């Protein structure tokens, strides 16, 4: 089990089991991203053993939908050190059915009007320009 740092991508809520998160990233990179879903339909991401909403321990792996929808975003001009060579970039939150993902929207200029709420995106894993660390990346789909 590695102890690699993942100081970004909002991984501060879990229990620090980065191996599970790494496994999940690999699945996403292979186009097999999934959410953990309890019988009540609450979605969460690894590492989880218990539903954070209702406490259920019956979590099943449900495949993510092919497309998500951008819910909110911000253009980052002054990055943290891990993103020094990536800026400016678009940090976005996208709705993927049972879960929301936080990632970087690529393929659209950060200052473009095409960066907008409601844009349909796919989620994949690419490398940070700064240090090659894996990163959740959204790519726009559909019309330009
Ligand atoms: Zn639940």
SSE sequence, one letter per element: HEEEEEEEE
Quote the beta fraction: 25-35%
Rg over C-alpha atoms, rounded to the nearest angstrom: 15 Å
Low-confidence stretches: 1-16
In total, the number of strands is 8
Q: What does the main sheet amount to?
A: 5 strands, mixed, barrel
Assigned CATH class of the largest domain = Mainly Beta
A few lines on this structure:
Helices cover 8% and strands 35% of the residues. The chain is mainly β. The protein has 2 domains: 13-64, no CATH class; 65-144, OB fold (Dihydrolipoamide Acetyltransferase, E2P), CATH 2.40.50.
Features:
144 residues, mainly beta, OB fold (Dihydrolipoamide Acetyltransferase, E2P), 2 domains, five-stranded mixed β-barrel, 8 strands, 8% helix, 35% strand, globular, disordered N terminus, binds zinc ion
Descriptive notes:
This protein is mostly beta strands and 144 residues long. The protein folds into 2 domains: 52 residues, no CATH class; 80 residues, OB fold (Dihydrolipoamide Acetyltransferase, E2P) (Beta Barrel), CATH 2.40.50. It is built from 1 helix and 8 strands; from the N terminus they run H-E-E-E-E-E-E-E-E. The strands form 2 sheets. Strands 4-5-6-8-7 form a 5-stranded mixed barrel. Strand 1 and strand 2 form a beta hairpin. The N and C termini lie far apart (42 Å). The N terminus is likely disordered. The site of zinc ion has 7 residues, from loops. Zinc ion (ZN) binds next to loops.
